[in-house]
Amino acid sequence: MMLIFLKTLHLITAIFFIGCVYFRTLIVPRIKPSLGTEKFGEVESLLAIHSRRFGNFNNALLLISGLCLYYLYFDSSAWLLHFKAFLGLLLVVLFYLAPFFVPPLTRSYAGFKSAFHRFLLGMMLLLVVLSQALFLL
Fold it and tell me: What transmembrane ranges does the database entry give (predicted)?
């Protein structure tokens, strides 16, 4: 019963994390022409505050459930599981560290935030594919 709970929690929190990054990467930038640069900046700041607050809680649950599942499925020869766990851990670490390095880099390099979000989304899609590939081995 605990395994089903952990898998469900991990899946739901992963969907929320991926959905949030998808929304911030591919949907939000599309409203900029309608709002103008100044108003768009305000909207984006508000979205960032609320999505980060939710993300802090969601991604803590994602990390905890992922670590528990990793422990339960651990096999020293399961290289794909180790790689998937590494990518998942890297994604969560990048999420928590982003407030410290994304704003300064965005001030220096105009497209950094957008490129960072696309990079995260790409890593997330790779992680989903890897999680399905685990069932093939």
Answer: 6-27, 54-73, 79-103, 115-135
Cβ contact 20:54 at 8 Å: yes
d(CA 118, CA 97): 17
Q: Which of 4, 132, 6 is nearest to 69 (CA)?
A: 6
- What is the band of 40 on the pLDDT scale with cuts at 50, 70, 90? very high
Residue 81 · residue 87 · CB < 8 Å: no
Distance CA(67)–CA(10), nearest Å, equals 10
Give the residue-averaged pLDDT of 70-98.
94
In the chain, domain spans: 2-133
Name the nearest CA neighbour of 92 among 23, 10, 25. 10
C-alpha 58/C-alpha 75 separation (Å) is 27
- Choose among 68, 63, 85: nearest CA to 76: 85
pTM comes to 0.91
Q: Residue length, the chain?
A: 137
Three-state secondary structure call for residue 96: helix
How far is the CA of 1 from the CAs of 5, 38, 43, 63, 67, in angstroms?
6, 51, 42, 19, 17
